[in-house]
Write a structure and sequence with these properties.
By secondary structure, the protein is of the alpha/beta class. The protein contains 15 helices and 15 strands. The strands form 3 sheets. A 6-stranded parallel β-sheet has the order 6-5-4-7-8-9, with helices on both faces. Helix 2 runs parallel beside helix 3, helix 11 crosses helix 12 and helix 12 packs across helix 15. The two termini are about 15 Å apart.
Length: about 450
């Protein structure tokens, strides 16, 4: 009974560490840190937060558009930071259904994620119309957060939303990583890959970006709508061929990409394009910032903290096996030290079964199975969660496992290995009471993992 109580407390600690990571990615605070008003004029700080490294001009009107899972929090914080005489409303905020609500001063549009829908097309059109009315001496503030790519589909000429949905589905089901997905989506869109910038001329543009991409490549976050794109139509075709999806893609998509490869349609804007002479960006938050906050919270809780991986990628179940093996080694070498192994990143899942789940739930289930197989003893808890509060097409953020998780599944009539093979992690974790449910968090900086061992 004592070990069960202590295991329960480990679960509580793991969840509190996860929430510390989410708190560090609070989108409102992230925006407020970089927007300063001095002498009635807006100053936008750069990535380093140094007031001396800021951008300012005597802008007469400031247009605000936001898209992503954190769109509303970022939009409201921006509205509150700007003098009323500068804020040119209404602004536009496009977010996912779970995070949608009314916001004073903004037209709010709820749209589909991870698969785009017609509401997203409407949202993209409203954004284009809004920023298209900005002129000289105006500033367009673009607030970008995770999920933005799917939330504002703007099909390129000759394509329709159904073409993009089918292609996105192919990419998801064939294990394409976020970089590969965005490369393809940029070349099927009129606003991704720097395309949004074309609609803001002659106004200035500044993007405030909350990164959900490892390494914080601005051209990848939300498919880089405000920055140059170094990828090409040839890259997009190569990706679809590599994951065996080219022949399965809609004919219109293949035709459009082929025309791009041969130069019959316009490429995405490149770094030398004069469009970018009046644009700039500030990175306001990232997975790395949240991982650091989680680590600090673990240290404050009395744990020895070890960084497992700050850029965790790869197939979720395979990475879980590696981690479980490493955890066993560490436990044998330092059996008496309370330990927290932490990671941040974004793994992938190649769907082969008919079940339901997400990369975090699959990783959690795979870790529990691997830990059981390797004989990992002691009281331990493993948590893997999406900082947006949603993992795949489910209502869970991920999973929180302990050494009895697989036992509880079997007692509930669930074969954990069979459910893993069927990509049915959600049902397995639901049966054992191991789902991590937070609800929508209003932010998104990829995933966080923590392994606690006593």
């Amino acid at each position: 009974m004592v070990s069960q109580i202590y295991a329960a407390s480990l679960r509580q600690i793991a969840e509190s560490l996860f929430r510390a990571g989410i708190e560090a990615a609070d989108p409102g605070k992230a925006v407020t840190r970089v927007l300063q008003i001095r002498d009635g004029q807006l100053h936008i700080l750069g990535d380093d937060g140094d007031p001396a490294n800021s951008r300012s001009a005597p802008w007469r009107r400031i247009f605000v558009v936001a898209f992503g899972k954190a769109a509303l929090a970022m939009a409201e914080a921006t509205r509150d930071a700007l003098p009323t005489n500068l804020f040119h409303g209404p602004g536009v905020a496009v977010t996912n259904y779970a995070n949608a609500r009314n916001a004073d001063g903004f037209t709010v549009i709820a749209a589909g994620h991870p698969l785009p829908d017609t509401n997203g097309v409407k949202g993209a059109q409203v954004i284009v119309e809004t920023i298209g009315s900005a002129g000289e001496n105006d500033l367009v503030l673009v607030l970008i957060s995770g999920g933005g790519s799917a939330l504002i589909p703007y099909p390129a000429p000759g394509l329709v939303l159904e073409d993009k949905i089918a292609t996105t589905n192919l990419l998801l089901r064939n294990g394409a990583n976020i970089g590969a997905m965005n490369t393809v989506r940029k070349h099927l869109s009129g606003i991704k890959g720097g395309g949004l910038t074309r609609f803001t001329v002659p106004a200035d543009l500044h993007a405030l970006i909350l990164s959900d991409v490892l390494g914080d490549d601005l051209s990848t976050i939300a498919s880089g709508p405000t920055v140059p794109d170094a990828t090409t139509f040839a890259d997009a075709k190569r990706i679809l061929e590599t994951i065996d999806a080219w022949d399965k893609a809609p004919e219109a998509v293949r035709s459009y990409i082929e025309k791009g490869v041969t130069g019959e349609v316009q490429e995405t804007p490149k770094p030398s394009d004069p469009l970018f002479a009046t644009t700039a960006s500030t990175l306001v938050g990232s997975n790395g910032v949240s991982l650091a906050a989680l680590s600090e919270a673990a240290y404050s809780a009395g744990c020895e903290v070890q960084l497992w991986d700050s850029h965790l990628t790869g197939e979720a179940r395979e990475e879980a096996k590696k981690w479980a093996t490493a955890a066993l080694t560490v436990h044998r070498e330092t059996p008496d030290i309370p330990l927290a192994m932490v990671a941040g990143g974004e793994t992938t899942v190649t769907l082969k079964g008919a079940g339901q789940g997400g990369r975090n739930q699959e990783m959690a289930l795979a870790f529990a199975l691997a830990a059981e197989k390797t004989g990992l003893s002691g009281d331990w808890v493993f948590l893997s969660g999406g900082t947006d509060g949603h993992d795949g097409p489910t209502d869970a953020a991920g999973g929180v496992m302990d050494r009895e998780s697989c036992v509880r599944m079997r007692e509930a009539g669930v074969d954990p290995q069979a459910f893993l093979v069927d990509n049915n992690s959600h049902a397995a974790l639901e049966a054992s009471g191991d789902l991590l449910v937070t609800g929508a968090t209003g932010t998104n900086v990829a995933d966080l993992q923590v392994f606690l061992l006593s």
